[in-house]
Specification:
The structure is a homotetramer.
Chain A: H1 3-18, H2 25-32, H3 36-42, H4 46-55, H5 59-66, H6 77-101, H7 106-118, H8 124-139, H9 149-170, H10 176-190
The structure holds a DNA duplex (21 and 21 nucleotides).
Protein name (chains A, B, C, D): HTH tetR-type domain-containing protein
Keywords (chains A, B, C, D): DNA-binding, Transcription, Transcription regulation
GO molecular function, one term (chains A, B, C, D): transcription cis-regulatory region binding
Amino acid sequence: MDLKNKISEAAEQVLLTNGLAKTTTKEIARAAGCSEGSLYNHFRNKEDIFLHVLRGQLKHLMGTLSSLPNLVGKEPVLKNLEQVSLAALGDFSNSMSLICSIFSEPDILLRHREGFTTRNEGPHRANEAVEAYLLKEKQYGRIPEEMDPRAAADLLLGSCFQHAFQLNFLGKVETKEEQTDFVSRVLKTLFPVEST
Amino acid sequence: MDLKNKISEAAEQVLLTNGLAKTTTKEIARAAGCSEGSLYNHFRNKEDIFLHVLRGQLKHLMGTLSSLPNLVGKEPVLKNLEQVSLAALGDFSNSMSLICSIFSEPDILLRHREGFTTRNEGPHRANEAVEAYLLKEKQYGRIPEEMDPRAAADLLLGSCFQHAFQLNFLGKVETKEEQTDFVSRVLKTLFPVEST
Amino acid sequence: MDLKNKISEAAEQVLLTNGLAKTTTKEIARAAGCSEGSLYNHFRNKEDIFLHVLRGQLKHLMGTLSSLPNLVGKEPVLKNLEQVSLAALGDFSNSMSLICSIFSEPDILLRHREGFTTRNEGPHRANEAVEAYLLKEKQYGRIPEEMDPRAAADLLLGSCFQHAFQLNFLGKVETKEEQTDFVSRVLKTLFPVEST
Amino acid sequence: MDLKNKISEAAEQVLLTNGLAKTTTKEIARAAGCSEGSLYNHFRNKEDIFLHVLRGQLKHLMGTLSSLPNLVGKEPVLKNLEQVSLAALGDFSNSMSLICSIFSEPDILLRHREGFTTRNEGPHRANEAVEAYLLKEKQYGRIPEEMDPRAAADLLLGSCFQHAFQLNFLGKVETKEEQTDFVSRVLKTLFPVEST
DNA sequence: CATGAATGAGACTTCATTCAT
DNA sequence: TATGAATGAAGTCTCATTCAT
């Protein structure tokens, strides 16, 4: 692995351990096994490292979402949504503290925003992807005609998002079973049995 | 107003404007119209000021939630939930950047956690309050027997929470109408007409 | 007891406990049971308090020394010198950290010096007093003709002084017996039996 | 000379000039010709600098003492003791204010104590060294059988110590002749001519 | 004479970034 | 490209002293 990636991974680990405020270039260099000066041979500055790490978050979820269009009309809707929800819950849980940290630095948030706007990315894409999926399933008649796809997507991902937030906030970690249980209860409530 | 409150309000304003990372004691003092030294006559340190401001967040939502038990069986369920949702959306929007900032300082988060654990508070209380409300309404027969109160609460508040998060993240501000529209779509999806 | 004395005693206690560097007006006021402002109704400033406390040191030794002239030719010389030595050892031990602290503030030392020069006092007076005593005893023929009174005084008090210093430095406290033993060995060496 | 030594020497000079209480990092940096930040590339903190300087004190005396065992039985006892006494007087005079300053910061004294305890050093070692020397000379029959080596060492070094203390306290500086005179009188009194 | 909040100067320390090697 | 000592700006916090009550 090249040094740039090593730095990036080291930074991610330090950020998750110490928090953005207590993440110093000295610590990143130590974790990456290189000198502080080396950081600047691969990144413009500390913010650049942070943004690089930030852009690498939610990878699992994004992958799942991009494979969603191929599942339309195939696997059971609820099964597909469960996959998405679990991916969301997992990725949100892992990335929450990193993503939230950006609110402590509005300047960086601004630049980050410009970045993902340019690349047509952003956290709201997830909701749009689920909405698009539901819309297509409706055309297939696999979900009720009267369902509002965007609202359903917001409810589903929103509950996962807040759940992940609260776990992080409370310092709790859930087992696989607890996660599945949460997702299943939420899905059952959003899509009562007779409806699909 | 005494200086302690003036400092607290000044700090809140500076925190919202500059973000936690760029909020300095010098700036807080300037905004409060006092000397830096004076901050320390009323707060132990900078963290103490931050936690004080933090504890003052979500006041509107908490007020709405505490009046919820009195509404059981009276106003239409959907109207009650709309009130709660709007309060949540508003308070989440206003407090999001402050609350999220704490993830950049795990040490502070830890202390904050201890604080609200002791006082039996915390952000998850909101979901519990809505859950309790729904449970009682179920006993009144005003919502379907098969509904899972906790899951419904998580879906509802979760969608508001994530929506507020994304607005802050994207730097957008919603009008009253947009907020009402969001809440109404979400509620309609969670409680399809025939169900209540 | 009036407040001025209460403050003075409180300051002495705080100085001995915390050291000069960590002795704050707030702490003195707390120990004296009054407000910080009150300190300034009785002393010009913090230095004034310190000098006041400093001047109160070595009281026991000074008392013993001033009674020394009356003992010339009466009690055995060694017994008189033992009294003086024990008083010196005791007072030096108790006052050492306070007196030494002044070296950390040359400005204060300067003012202190002016003070005791004016009042014709100072730590070197002790040696002079013992010297004067020995001189008189020599005239009485109670100590050898060839003895140098000043040198003898310097040896005796010097050893007590350094001993007290080292105890403080090493954080040790001696029992009455250990003190008496030290003094007796030193006196025996300085005044071998056949000499007196 | 590397920067660490430059800082150390600068600090010693500032400490001797301004006293511990008025020795600031800014002043040390100025005297060392570097930035304040640089201090922290070579020392953990200000206390670390102080302790480093402190440990460098009494070097001359310690050197003289370590060469003492080689002189047993060779040079005249009084000449050897004069060397030691002069070294002690000189080093004590130069280091007194620095060494005494530590009493103003009990916390630092504590740490310093731990340090030299670990390294089996400390100011009391000087007295032990002289005691050991005298003991050996006694075996050579060069000092009276009835002499108490420890007491003699304490008297000799104690008088030098207190003399140096008082000179510093009174703000006086002695010439070489005055020092030699003091030492010679003290030695003559402690070792009357016929005794050696 | 007593109070204690307010002050403001200044101390120590951290840290991202640079640059000569 | 890699290094790491040097930097200097900036931040948090302390504390003796004042003054209005």
